[in-house]
Amino acid sequence: MSIAATFEIEYLQYLDADGKLVRSDLPEFARDAKQLVELYKTMLFVRVFDTKAVALQRTGKLGTYASCLGHEAAHVAIGSAMREDDVFAPMYREYGAQFVRGVKPREVLMYWGGDERGNDFSGPAHDFPWCVPIATQCLHAAGAALAFKIRKEPRVAVSVVGDGGSSKADFYGAINMAGAQTLPYVSVIVNNQWAISVPRTIQTGAKTLAQKGIAAGVECLQVDGNDLIAMRAAMDHAIKRARHGHGGMLIEAVTYRLSDHTTADDARRYRPDAEVKAAWEREPMKRLRTYLTAQNVWSDKHEEAWKAECEKIVDVEVNAYLETKTQPVEAIFDYVYAELPPDLTAQRAQALALEQRRG
Amino acid sequence: MAQITLIEAITQALAHEMANDASVVVLGEDVGVNGGVFRATAGLSEKFGTQRVLDTPLDETTIAGVAVGMAVQGMRPVAEAQFDGFVYPMVDHIVCHAARFRTRTRGRLSCPLVLRVPWGGGIRAPEHHSEANEAIFTNVPGLRVVMPSSPSRAYGMLLAAIRDPDPVIFFEPKRIYRQYKEEVPDDGEALPLDVCFVLRDGTDVTLVTWGAQVKETLEAADALAKEGVSAEVIDVATLKPLDFDTIHESVKKTGRCVIVHEAPRTAGFGAEVAARLAEHAMYDLVAPVERVTGYDTHIPLFRLEMKYLPSVERIVAAAKRTLAAS
Ligand SMILES: Cc1ncc(C[n+]2csc(CCOP(=O)(O)OP(=O)(O)O)c2C)c(N)n1
Ligand SMILES: [Mg+2]
């Protein structure tokens, strides 16, 4: 028998869990300590925001909330590698990527606070809103990439999906379309090891999730998703080749969900404490802080000052959210069609009359 | 005997039938160790093992498709859609296959699966977790579409659904999962899947509903009683096939009918009930049929959702309109 094809999956890491460099070929952006500090500061901001959001839910001021604890490096790398006119198709916890793209914390809170206006966010107007039906966003990103290709625009579409979501037909269809059509599409699997209570091992018999792209004919890479430098390097590479017509890429960001799935979940029911404890040793903030401190561009003093600043900014956002008045009842009707059909106009009038009678 | 909630009645029925029939297998997302995000399958994995309580990969197409395959080969799969909003990828397998194996093969093959679907709004859930989408299924020949609204009906109807030789879509009104408890003996007694239940006798107006709206409709009947109006309340329970006779008998008595449902109005299942009344009860009616429904819009996120769902106030007002008309 002869061999028809052979494949391998590379794993990329620059910073290990202790904050030590494991490679010498630092990418350009990482040689500039200032740029790294900016990214670290964004990650810290995300963590401060996330902590506050969970607290808001616990005190009844927010609905169910999906925490991004532990995903900061992956998310910030994704957002910061993209250009404004690229298109982002998130799932529901990529606040780090979205803040970089201009989404406001108050908008995240509005969304989880039961107000559609959160989806009408301040990020790029062409970005997709949060996507709860798992993995469907992957196909929408592939479709956006197809539009860019047809219109010969040098733009890239990026989607994020979870380890669980990578089992879904939509995920496979999107990456396959990218391979078949050489689309400017970057699909990132944020593998945080759990899909609610279902561990990664139950999702597939495959050794890596990155290798799912091989059958689609796209470039594949597994990355330490807790290493900001590696994540950003991988994203830069993927986006550059996509923008230059070399087609799609699949990146598996290996990380860990340090929180419950959402605030409606209790992970202690299905997840050993020891596993979570071990994961804290590998989390993304500490290693980057250690590295930056060793480079003499960050210190405990910086950390404290910036954290205090983050808390102030987040407080302003939280207050803006809490002060947002509920939409009037007409808002239920006014965005269903471009123009309200007469049939619906009548229902709208009924709802309004009922509201007025209630006073 | 212990008093149990609607969701506990579902767990009790699943456990009963799994013990009773080795071909019953539960599958879905998070149904195993976690016991389901609503706890419907709590304890089943410990009792029956991971082969019969299967955590699947996260893909609804997979869940529905393998349930079809298992059912055709003689198993009794009870598949779970985690939420109403996630059944859509399953529709292909349900509509093109589960519902028509019997017809396509002239009875050689059948597909006795159950698809459990936590259903409806009113629990302050995130987007896509609050859909009242029963009418998508009631238009499909070959399916039974059921929705219990009490612990004892949940128990008896789920047993019947699992034992039924045809595919059953089993909607669970999640808003009333834990509304109240009642005594539900674990006696293995199934309830019929082709009758409506008269929950309250009355003479002036018939209120027809199903699912979580049974709660508001009964409250509306109480409110009407205080004003001297006697309302009969019918829980349709099995939407397809519809027991129209029970509804017709009631309307013969009252001459008035208000249909209450959470789903959008246009082509909602209430339209079917109203059409049957137009066909068969025209001369029994003394007032136009009223519908109190969700609007023809998407159910809003939770800040506004209670303004979308039929309220006691809207039901009472509709009943009064039927009374004013004659
Ligand atoms: C189609 C669909 N099915 C089920 C769900 C319910 N659900 C929400 S999140 C989730 C797990 C997702 O896991 P993963 O893809 O790994 O992403 P993570 O939440 O871990 O980031 C499930 C099953 C859903 N939102 N959409
Ligand atoms: Mg996951």
UniProtKB/TrEMBL annotation, chain A:
UniProt lineage: Bacteria, Pseudomonadati, Pseudomonadota, Gammaproteobacteria, Lysobacterales
Oxidoreductase in keyword set: yes
Keywords: Oxidoreductase, Pyruvate, Thiamine pyrophosphate
UniProt entry tagged with the keyword Oxidoreductase: yes
GO molecular function per UniProt: pyruvate dehydrogenase (acetyl-transferring) activity
SUPFAM superfamilies found in the cross-reference section: Thiamin diphosphate-binding fold (THDP-binding)
Subunit-structure text: Heterodimer of an alpha and a beta chain.
Classification via InterPro entries: Alpha-ketoacid_DH_E1_comp, DH_E1, PdhA/BkdA, THDP-binding
Domain Dehydrogenase E1 component: 40-325
Catalytic activity: N(6)-[(R)-lipoyl]-L-lysyl-[protein] + pyruvate + H(+) = N(6)-[(R)-S(8)-acetyldihydrolipoyl]-L-lysyl-[protein] + CO2
EC number: 1.2.4.1
Cofactor: thiamine diphosphate
Pfam families reported in the protein's UniProt record: E1_dh (PF00676)
Any Gene Ontology biological process: branched-chain amino acid catabolic process
Name of protein: Pyruvate dehydrogenase E1 component subunit alpha
Function description: The pyruvate dehydrogenase complex catalyzes the overall conversion of pyruvate to acetyl-CoA and CO(2). It contains multiple copies of three enzymatic components: pyruvate dehydrogenase (E1), dihydrolipoamide acetyltransferase (E2) and lipoamide dehydrogenase (E3).
UniProtKB/TrEMBL annotation, chain B:
Pfam families in UniProt: Transket_pyr, Transketolase_C
Protein name: 2-oxoisovalerate dehydrogenase subunit beta
This protein's UniProt keywords: Oxidoreductase, Thiamine pyrophosphate
Cofactor annotation: thiamine diphosphate
Family annotation (SUPFAM superfamilies): Thiamin diphosphate-binding fold (THDP-binding), TK C-terminal domain-like
Keyword Oxidoreductase included in the entry's annotation: yes
GO terms for biological process, alphabetical: branched-chain amino acid catabolic process; response to nutrient
EC assignment: 1.2.4.4
Species whose genome carries this gene: Tahibacter soli
Domain (Transketolase-like pyrimidine-binding): residue spans on this chain: 4-179
InterPro entries: THDP-binding, Transketo_C/PFOR_II, Transketolase-like_Pyr-bd, Transketolase_C
GO molecular function: branched-chain 2-oxo acid dehydrogenase activity
Annotated function: The branched-chain alpha-keto dehydrogenase complex catalyzes the overall conversion of alpha-keto acids to acyl-CoA and CO(2). It contains multiple copies of three enzymatic components: branched-chain alpha-keto acid decarboxylase (E1), lipoamide acyltransferase (E2) and lipoamide dehydrogenase (E3).
The keyword Signal is assigned to this record: no
